[in-house]
Design brief:
121 residues, mainly beta, seven-stranded mixed β-sheet, four-stranded antiparallel β-sheet
């Protein structure tokens, strides 16, 4: 069974920094894409940042220059360094992966349970 486990969420003051981590485990053959989404109360889930196996990185416009996504391929782990946090960054952050596992033997989406990030003013 593939699992994505997030860590690093919590409460932080506006202007502060926080780093999220997500480790993928299970019978993983290859990972095409890993990244982060977030969902604020009453809002739809939106993409924050993604990184592909080829090294392509994409950021949502509002986080460019403040957030940095990186990954450790050997550990199947993706990180999100978040600086200059704003109250509007408050949301549940979800780790995302598009990968191939032994069961099922096809590429598909996987999601973590989510970690709450609250930015106070």
């Amino acid at each position: 069974q593939v699992q994505l486990v997030e860590s690093g969420g919590g409460l932080v003051q506006a202007g502060g920094s926080l780093r999220l981590s997500c480790a993928a485990s299970g019978s993983i053959i290859s990972i095409n894409t890993m990244g982060w989404y977030r969902q604020a109360p009453g809002q739809q889930r939106e993409v924050v940042a993604t990184t592909t196996s080829g090294g392509t990185i994409n950021y949502e416009d509002s986080v460019k220059g403040r957030f940095t996504i990186s990954r450790d391929n050997a550990k199947n782990t993706v990180y999100l360094q978040r600086n200059s946090l704003k109250p509007e960054d408050t949301a549940v952050y979800y780790c995302y992966a598009y990968l191939v596992a032994l069961r099922p033997l096809r590429t598909q989406d996987y999601w973590g349970q989510g970690t709450q990030v609250t930015v106070s003013s």
